[in-house]
Amino acid sequence: MSNILPGVSPSMMCADALNLGADAVALEKAGAQYFHYDVMDGDFVPNFMLGPDVIKAVRKVSAVPADIHLMIKNPERHLHLFDLRPGDVVSVHQESTVHLQRTLAAIRQAGAQAAVALNPATPLGSIEDVLPDLDMVLVMTVNPGFAGQKLVPQTLAKITRLRSMLDEKGYSHVRIEVDGNVSFENAVKMRAAGADLFVAGTSAVFREGGIQANMVKLLDCIR
Ligand code: DX5
Ligand code: ZN
Predict the structure, then answer these.
(1) With CB atoms 3.0 to 4.6 Å apart as the test, which of 19, 107, 207, 221 could cross-link to 187 if both were Cys?
(2) Separation of 37 CA from ligand 2 center, angstroms?
(3) What is the atom index within ligand 1 of the atom nearest the CA of 142?
(4) What's the confidence (pLDDT) of residue 2?
(5) Who surrounds ion ligand 2 at CB < 5 A?
(6) pLDDT of residue 4
């Protein structure tokens, strides 16, 4: 386990688009560690989502750092579009870029923390040679592209194996983020497996009960 306090990164694509500012303020008050922004290009994943201007707009009402999840092909070509701040973290998919090490180095060069995201089918061995370039690994617990999907069950064991791999190789400071069907029930299992940062979408926070009460409940499950 990394020593960092486990946290919640609410998925802004699941917030109320007509009241995004109000939702951001409420989520900050409720203790969001980051705001998770899903950027989709309609090519790497079969859907379109949030662009750089949405992140810029939210920064006007909240100082919560951005957790930018790029689900786009060749992310290195578009990094310059994002106004990155110290404390932000940017995830690129292992499957989306040929020169992964160069892309991760470019994220750090731009002043943010670097993370690699792995689809459920992508093996952990594919990131062994970039561990020095990583601050975090994002384990996709569903296939990326849509909110409201069901957990791919074998990803739980993958989190456990990743935590062991990081600790054994001297990377215990590298955090693990989980994204997809982070329900109250699944969050407990993901935490036990070694996850540190929990993307909260429709399964936990943006559902009946209200986002503030749901945030409290989810934080209870992981701390
Ligand atoms: C895609 C998104 C979704 C979603 C997560 O990367 O991050 O996984 O918003 O929330 P759920 O699965 O709970 O709707
Ligand atoms: Zn995401």
Answers:
(1) 221
(2) 7
(3) 8
(4) 61
(5) 38, 69, 179
(6) 79
Query: What domains lie within the chain, and their CATH numbers?
Result: 7-222 (3.20.20.70)
| From 23, 41, 179, 196, active-site residue | 179
* CA nearest to 176, candidates 190, 192, 158, 197: 197
Question: How far, in whole angstroms, is CA 153 from its chain's centroid?
Answer: 18
What torsion, rounded to 10 degrees, do the Cα atoms 13, 14, 19, 24 define?
A: -80
Q: Note the ligand closest to the C-alpha atom of 141.
A: 1
Active site includes 41? no
pLDDT at 201: 98
Strand order in the sheet with 66-71: 7-10, 197-200, 175-179, 136-140, 113-118, 89-93, 66-71, 35-40
10-52 confidence digits (pLDDT tens): 999 999 999 999 999 999 999 999 999 999 999 999 999 999 9
